[in-house]
Amino acid sequence: MKKQSKTEKALSHKVFLQREYGSRHLAYERELEFYDAVKDGNFKALNKLMLPLKDRHLGTLSKDALRNAKYHLIITVALITRFCIEGGLESETAYTLSDVYIQQVDACRSEEEIDLLHRELVFDFADRMKKRKAAQGISRAVKKACDYIYDNLHQRLTLEKIARAAGIHKNYLCALFKKETGSTVQEYIRRKKIEAAANMLSYADYSPQELSDYFSFSSQSHFTNTFKRIMNATPAEYQRTHYHSHWQKR
Fold first, then answer.
1. Are 74 and 41 in contact (CB under 8 A)?
2. Contact partners, residue 230, CB within 8 Å, separation at least 6
3. Which pTM does this prediction carry?
4. Tens of pLDDT along the chain (250 residues)?
5. Residue 46 to residue 119: CA distance in whole angstroms
């Protein structure tokens, strides 16, 4: 008789216990529904399908409750990342976002922190997919302009450079951009720079001057005023609320 390996013995024992006590993993179809809801940016479905990481149907990966939650969240991030890339999210954005969240998972010190991070990352990815889906009706020229802006947020962007990247005259770009996005090119640039700056303030200890320089604002005061107008808080206020909430217990 062939000797069972240690892994095979553990598998047989686990299956036996699950059969005896009526414990089952989450149905594959339900898992797919959840990840498809993230990919589709479907918040309504997510609120119904999203389970707490301690739910017994997710299985036990560690006897330590915190470690078990961390393992499940890392798996969740990895799968969400791949589903979103399949759904059209830029792979570099998706993988970088995944790295950021996994680093935060590693730093969590309680199940409560894991629960909050779980919800944050799921709806962050879903929101990005929802916005991407809404932007699918945008013309190729405006899409090229948006991509150029995204890739060069740290530079001082000019209408001439953006129009050249989009392959159309700058006057036509201005009219088309406003029609399709509801925003002027300059308003869009300012918002994207500030959103990126806010994200950096949430996860690292940057000063307003550092961010002003990095995103090529004319001055720190210009950066601070623009930030406050868009985010309804100064950089310092935003950082105290968001960065502190992520790291105060680390």
1. no
2. 190, 191, 194, 195
3. 0.52
4. 455 566 665 545 444 444 444 444 445 677 888 999 999 899 989 988 888 887 666 677 888 999 999 999 999 999 999 999 988 888 888 899 999 999 999 999 999 999 999 999 999 999 999 888 777 678 889 989 988 998 899 999 999 999 999 999 999 999 999 998 889 999 999 999 998 898 888 777 889 999 999 999 999 999 999 999 999 899 999 888 776 554 444 4
5. 10
- In the three-class reduction of DSSP (H, G, I as helix; E, B as strand; rest coil), residue 51 is classed as coil
28 token code pair: 């594959």
Name residue, tokens 């869009």. Answer: 188
Measured from the Cβ of residue 121, the count of other Cβ atoms closer than 10 Å reads 23
Nearest residue to 15 via CA among 4, 2, 1, 30: 4
CB–CB of 79/35 below 8 Å? yes
Under DSSP, the state recorded for 42 is -
Token readout for 207 is 């000063």
Residue in the block written with tokens 């990815």: 125
Q: Give the dihedral of Cα atoms 16, 20, 21, 23; nearest 10 deg.
A: 50
Which secondary-structure segment (H or E) carries 237? Answer: helix 235-247
